[in-house]
Amino acid sequence: MISNEMFLEKARALEPTLNITEAVPPGFERTVLGEGGKTVFDFGTHYVGHIRMELAYEGSHPDAPLWLNIQFAERESELHEDPADYRGWISRGWIQNEQIHIDILPAALKLPRRYAFRYVKIEVLAASSKYSAVIERISCLAESSADDARLRPYRSGDSLLGKMDAVACRTLHECMQKVFEDGPKRDRRLWLGDLRLQALANYESYRCSSLVKRCLYLFAGCADDRGKIPAAVFTEPEIEADDVYMFDYSLLFVPALLDYFNETGDTEALRELWPVAWNQIILARDCFDSKGVVIDDGRPGWCFIDWNLALDKQASAQGVCLYCLKAAKRIAEILGENGKAAEAEKEYAEKKSAALEYLLDKESGFFISGPEKQRSLASQVWMILGGVTEGSEARDLLLRLSSPELLAPVTPYMMHHYVEAAVLCGEKEHALKLLRDYWGEMVNEGADTFWELYNPLDPDESPYGGTIVNSYCHAWSCAPAYFLRKYFN
Ligand code: RAM
């Protein structure tokens, strides 16, 4: 078997170069700001990059430093949030706010940190009574590894669908950096669940399969001593596994690999990465009880599925495992590994019947999860994707998912899987309606890029304790670029 270091070598060789372009706010005009003055520059759409400013002064020679506060926002509404009010559990270090002193004017300033934004608010915290600051020019050196020349055209006679696709492609573009980042504002790193969906949207749009390959090799190279794949990987200053492991994210390496092979026919990568993928199936067995049901270990984050903090993950996890077993069986067949294909099939049958016996409420026909027998949309969707229910039964279940008695998801990540379930059930119109109602609504609310979280019933939804740390350019939300191009073109 290939060692972690050899996987990482392959990943390093696939590191993309970033394309740098300079963007200036449309209609920019030289701006004079005295002490206490503020202004907002609107760059017209979302950018990821470094800010450059040419600063000067008006009045007497500056007799005191210029002290600026610079706030970045992906959505305009973020500008009205006060960073000091944030009390959440995720680091406030993510808040895109900077203060800087400039001792000598004029000055050419390049901020060291990379930001994700459309709006930049600049406030003069201090100048002096003798001079005002002048912003002669502001621009963004925008970065992305996406190659716009490769973007497949998409045309739709329906303007909302066209916009949804464009916003999805912009989101993906912004998240395509040296890896597929989850979000360029936060966490700016490679997560496995996110990668799988980004890769799917990318195959239909930018077609950069080498970046997917690099990310798959990064995960393989970061597996721990037992072979377990971490949920996320850091790449700077050195490649290193995040010490977070999640049941679903490790397993989803298997379908992500299969998708990559289906797209590229790259048998060499499939062969090399298959032992790592199969290992995830083996390691997941430790998480099942003797009846063949996933053990709900209660630890927050043991399994991801969605950011609704009230969600019980047990039934969804069972569905994810079945979904991944199907993919494992398929890979084993492609590689002619008949023993493993048979092993996957047997395990699949056992876990499926356990799901039907212990996780299905026969009376209502809904799948239940955890000690409280929770009914959620996520559980139903993953059981459909896992093939626990099929054919007309699956279709009937799908058409009951808007029932208010089901706990609703809050992420475009989970909604992507809902749309996938609709497609699997042959309910394309239903899938299209979901895309329109959910992603279309974000477009109607002015999204330039799609968001990490969107709960139409609660605009302040945040699992982190404050929307100021939410990401509003999160590529697990690129579903329209995938589904519209693949199924509705
Ligand atoms: C969020 C990340 C990422 C997701 C994890 C589980 O914090 O931004 O998108 O995969 O959670």
What does this structure look like?
- The protein has helices spanning 4-13, 159-175, 192-204, 209-221, 247-251, 253-264, 267-284, 314-334, 338-358, 377-385, 391-398, 412-424, 428-444, 479-487, and strands at 19-23, 31-33, 38-59, 66-73, 97-102, 107-110, 115-126, 131-144, 190-191, 232-234, 240-241.
- The protein is an alpha+beta fold and 489 residues long.
- The strands form two sheets. Strands 1, 2, 3, 4, 5, 6, 7 and 8 form an eight-stranded antiparallel sheet that branches. A three-stranded antiparallel sheet has the order 9-10-11.
- Strand 10 (232-234) and strand 11 form a beta hairpin.
- The two termini are 42 Å apart.
- 46% of the residues are buried.
- The mean pLDDT is 97.
- The site of alpha-L-rhamnopyranose has 8 residues, from helix 3.
Tally of separate helices: 14
Strand content: 15-25%
Global morphology: elongated
Instruction: From the alpha carbons, calculate the radius of gyration and give it in angstroms.
Output: 24 Å
Bound molecules: alpha-L-rhamnopyranose
* Low-confidence blocks of residues: none
In whole angstroms, the N-to-C terminal distance is 42 Å
Order of helices and strands: HEEEEEEEEHEHHEEHHHHHHHHHH
CATH architecture level-2 label of the largest domain: Alpha/alpha barrel
- Total number of distinct structural domains: 2
CATH topology of the largest domain: Glycosyltransferase
Instruction: Let me know the largest β-sheet.
Output: 8 strands, antiparallel
Counted beta strands: 11
Indicate the mean pLDDT: 97
Helix/sheet category:
alpha+beta
Percent of residues in helices:
25-40%
- CATH first level of the largest domain: which class? Mainly Alpha
